[in-house]
Structures are given as C-alpha cells and as structure tokens.
Amino acid sequence: MYVMLMGVNTRLSKPVLLRIIKANVHDVDVTFYLCDVDGCESKATKASDLKKHKAAVHDLEVTFYVCDVKGCDYKAKQACHLKNHKDNAHDLDVAFYECGVDGCEYKAKKASSIKKHKTRIHGISS
After folding, report:
1. In degrees, to the nearest 5, what angle opens at C-alpha 90 toward C-alphas 55 and 65?
2. Residues 73, 100 within the same domain
3. Structural domain containing residue 73
4. Within 10 A of 54 (CB to CB), how many other CB atoms are there?
5. pTM, to two decimals
6. Total count of domains within the chain
7. Along the 126 residues of the chain, how does pLDDT read in single tens digits?
C-alpha cells in the first residue's frame, strides 16, 4: 500500500500504519473529547488527556496543595511543588549543608551547591 507522506510516495508495510496516519494527521475515524469551558477549543483523543488539560489550563477537577504558612497564599497542583515552595520561600523542613572550610560560614540547601562553592571560592575540587 502506498501513501503520500510529506510529498513523497511511501510504501506502508502494514494497513494499521495507514489508520494511524489518517487518525493523527487527518483526524479520520477519531473520537474527540471536547473541552466544555466557554471559549476553549481544545480537544483530546483520550478522556484522561482532556482531564489533564482542564486541570492544567482551567484549574478544574484538581486538588490543590495549599501552603499553611500564615500570610502565604501559594497553592500547587502537586505535593512536591508545595514542598519545593516551602523549602525555597520559607526555609521550612530544610537541612542545610555547610561549607566546612575554617572561617567560611557559607551554607546551602543542596550538596551540589556546596561542591560548586568550594570549587569556585576555595579552589577545592572533590
């Protein structure tokens, strides 16, 4: 079976490939799940992809993780993002790494930052 792909007559070894091309390139024989938010024209071929779209773009059908620090209104869609926020914005639950060179008070939240600091500032490479 031959089809025209990007201006080139190409032989397809299996009919299933033609179905895939028709579906992905030409939207033939595809069921779409349409976003029902006013003004949104997004569509997906899987219900799970539409759900991800609604959560990411429209903040619908999503559980938010809210920062519990007084006066902070940060919220995240993933628990790991909230943890990163707390680490970076509030220094909560953070284990600091210290430089360890006599007289240096540098500290960092990541061991890799200490390694870079020692190399750049003290000329020490691990």
Report:
1. 25
2. no
3. 63-93
4. 19
5. 0.49
6. 4
7. 555 555 666 666 677 777 777 777 777 778 889 999 999 999 998 899 999 999 999 999 889 999 999 999 999 989 999 988 998 888 877 788 999 999 999 999 889 999 999 999 999 986
